[in-house]
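lol forgot to send this yesterday, sorry. struct tokens for the thing we talked abt
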């Protein structure tokens, strides 16, 4: 009788240990899945922003980088465009447009805040009709002296 009880105890211990290991393996898989789902989904975008100079570049990039979730922002003075990389789970493209506009600069989708624009240095007072040239093509200037 003692042997039967002892045998049952050994079998029960083996089953318990086996279940415990399977549970541990399942937890390990769950931890791996959690880490994989937490990977950042970065998005790249490019859009036009009006501006003139290096000081504009600094202000525009600072405004964009100030948005939580923006990883990088690079405004091209000549092409009047900004390249941004951001985490879609933390922000969206419109929030970046709005932040830049709040600093006084027009974007393709949002007009710059006039009060902020007035506070910009004189060299940063851009033409509000300026083309936001994303291709880098330089358009010939009209030197005829006539207003169009």
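and heres what i got for the seq, position by position
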């Amino acid at each position: 009788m003692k042997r039967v009880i002892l045998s049952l105890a050994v079998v029960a211990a083996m089953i318990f240990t086996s279940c415990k290991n399977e549970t541990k393996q399942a937890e390990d898989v769950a931890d791996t899945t959690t880490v994989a789902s937490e990977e950042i989904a970065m998005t790249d975008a490019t859009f036009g922003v009006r501006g003139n100079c290096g000081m504009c570049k600094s202000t525009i990039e600072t405004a964009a980088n100030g948005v939580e979730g923006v990883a990088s922002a690079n405004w091209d003075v000549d092409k009047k465009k900004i390249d941004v990389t951001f985490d879609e789970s933390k922000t969206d493209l419109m929030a970046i447009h709005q932040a830049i506009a709040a600093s006084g600069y027009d974007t393709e989708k949002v007009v710059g805040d006039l009060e902020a624009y007035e506070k910009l240095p004189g060299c940063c007072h851009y033409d509000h009709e300026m083309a936001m040239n994303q291709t880098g093509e330089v358009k010939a200037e009209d030197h005829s002296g006539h207003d169009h």
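Residues 8-13, 15-24, 29-37, 138-148 have pLDDT under 50 and may be disordered. anyway ping me if u want another try
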